[in-house]
Amino acid sequence: MLKKLFKKSNGVEIHAPLNGKVVNLKDVPDPVFSQKMMGEGIAIVPSEGKVFSPVNGEIVTIPESKHAIGMRTKDGTEVLIHIGLETVSLNGKGFTTLVSVGDQVKVGEQLLDVDLEYIKENAADIITPVIITNSNDKQVTVAEETEARAGETVLLTVK
């Protein structure tokens, strides 16, 4: 019991929200992400359109365009999943949300259904950045994974 109380936390693990190929954030073809203007993170080129929660936490934002979803963990880590590039202009078409702001979610719980074919045809790219938006206040370790399995592969650790 005491060991559990005094055990040092290894931080919050951010799991893959999608299946696909893992890409370094600097390789995302959008300076807002590649230059880490929104925060530290990683990206995935999705192989399918099911988006799952990468953390246990609360849904804090879903824009009307449904192209992104923001979450906050119990320790205050803020995670943004931004599906594709230039997808805000799709006005929600191709996206089906399965959760609402205020919902508590667990790692691996499905958040969105995305029509990847529609996104490929109508947006700049399907690459999906996963960003720690408050990474300036945190220590973020990026895993060296090349393939992501949704809900299983740990992509980032935040302390």
From TrEMBL:
Subcellular location: Cytoplasm
Chief localisation class: cytoplasm
InterPro entries listed in its UniProt record: Dup_hybrid_motif, PTS_EIIA_1_perm, PTS_EIIA_component
Keywords associated with the record: Kinase, Phosphotransferase system, Sugar transport, Transferase, Transport
Keyword Transport annotated: yes
Residues annotated as domain PTS EIIA type-1: 30-134
Record has Transport as a keyword: yes
Highest taxon of the lineage: Bacteria
NCBIfam families in the cross-refs: PTBA (TIGR00830)
Full protein name: PTS glucose transporter subunit IIA
